[in-house]
Amino acid sequence: MRQTLVLALAISVSAGAALAQTAQPTTSASAPAPTLASAPAQAADPASAPAAAPVAMPKCDNPNALGISRVVRIDTTGGPGFGFPQFKAYDFLRDHEVVLTFDDGPWPWNTEHVLKALADQCTRALFFPIGEHAGWHPELMKEVAAAGHTVGSHTWSHKDLTKLSQDEAKAEFEKGVAAVSIALGNKPVGPFFRFPALRNPPEMLKYLGERNVGIFSADVDSFDFKIHKPEQVIKSVMAKLEKNHKGIVLMHDFQHATAEALPEILKRLKDGGYKVVWVTGKTQIEPIKEYTEAVAKEMGGGLEDARPVSSVVQTIQGN
User: DSSP secondary structure string, the chain?
Assistant: First the structure.
């Protein structure tokens, strides 16, 4: 029997009519919002996992969208890990279920096109942004959150934490959280973290457990940082899914080829009978003040209120 004392999967699934009663109007018409497909309600362990509040899913205008099959809420107390090759205790995915994850963003054009592809298919993902990138492009970080996706963190500058001292590794993690928080408008961050290169030193596993941060590895690594043609990214993802039949899929919204490949990947997931599971956290994490101050000093002010550059500065004459 799988352990369930740390992980509470509070799954909210209901028929379309019930969702219509709880759905709230969306304030943005830029992209359709996800839909929640009907499925039998199920909880990991009724005795240890309190029922989650129903998830209000806005209307989706695409009747053939991939959508969302399940929403899971994870209790990250103690720092549970996910991704079967490295963490075997909490394998919560069923056959032909996937969790879509994106690392290393946000990045101009690439992240925007990833968001559009997800919106067109009315589905949601889990993003692991790099702190420096969030500081450089806070308006994109806000777009990710505004689209309803879950936002975790992926260190400050993508250093291999196994090569750092414990204090240095801790600072890499905490500065990353602080930068994402500032970019989101000084808001808390989702309680999820992915180690760069999936290398997780034992001391940091212990520290993240103390911070109650869930650790995401991967079941399906696209290796899109090594292959730079969209058709190769599509082949990589689909071939590995055909072998595993399910999994946490690791891609990068930093990579241009991935942004180009994603519409076709989502289409093939739909055609192949795969279903998306959207991961949310039971609680969020707050940045530590000293690291927030350090990041704010290093990156400069105004990030929390930043708007898209195109809405602030417009070329009115010349090229």
Answer: ----SS---------HHHHHHH----S--SSPPP-B-------S-TTTSPPPPPP-----S-TT---BSEEEEE--TT--EE-TTT--S-----TTEEEEEEES---TTHHHHHHHHHHHTT---EEE--HHHHHH-HHHHHHHHHTT-EE-B--SS---GGGS-HHHHHHHHHHHHHHHHHHTTS--B-SEE--GGG---HHHHHHHHHTT-EEE--SEE--TTT--SHHHHHHHHHHHHHHHSSEEEEEETT-HHHHHHHHHHHHHHHHTT-EEEEEEESS-BPPPHHHHHHHHHHH-S-GGG---HHHH----S--
Q: How many structural domains comprise the chain?
A: 1
Model confidence pLDDT, tens digit, residues 36-87: 443 333 434 434 444 445 565 757 999 999 999 999 999 999 999 999 999 9
pTM of the model: 0.81
Domain that holds residue 116: 32-308
User: Is residue 316 in some structural domain?
Assistant: no
Q: Which residues are catalytic?
A: 103, 252
CATH code assigned at 280: 3.20.20.370
